[in-house]
Amino acid sequence: MGLSQQQLNAGIDALAARDSNVARALGNVGYPEPRIRARGYATLLRTIVGQQVSVAAANSIWNKLESQFGEGCPAETVAAADFDTLRACGLSGQKQGYAKSLAQLILDGELQFDALPADDEEAIALLTKVKGIGRWSAEIYLLFAEGRPDIWPAGDLAVQEAVGRIFQLGTRPSEKQARELAEAWRPHRGAAAIFSWHCYNMDVI
Question: Is the Cβ–Cβ distance between 78 and 100 less than 8 Å?
């Protein structure tokens, strides 16, 4: 599970106490709501399903998959499914490859969600062994589903835009700059990321 409201607020309060930029932004936009997803295979599979399609399309595909394979689309059923069956559910050939890669790693025991490395970078490296799961997707999973408190998805454009506003830079920083600026926010960068999305969506700093 992701960071609870209590954990999220505590992290943001800790940042606001030592960073006047965060304190000012918090006074303007308030606290964000938690972003929580279930831990495990189904959440990562759903991430693959949702890539480069609308939310409505992703939900439709997921519903078809669950109708075909059962709740959560068990790994053994996805691994054994043929092209036409998956295509009828809405998965492109490329996404079928991604889904089967994930399912096979689960079945082979190479990816065990209850035994992910404690080190965030090692966990990211393991998750990105799945075809179609890049660094951003791995970071989002670790933050929303595992509740890792110091995950910082600096490559996210909305996070970059919000960091620019929080620090009053007048422009969107690069991924490298966003990563450097957030170094001072350790070990609460996960809360900072969720707060950054909140600032971006509120469009007021």
Answer: yes
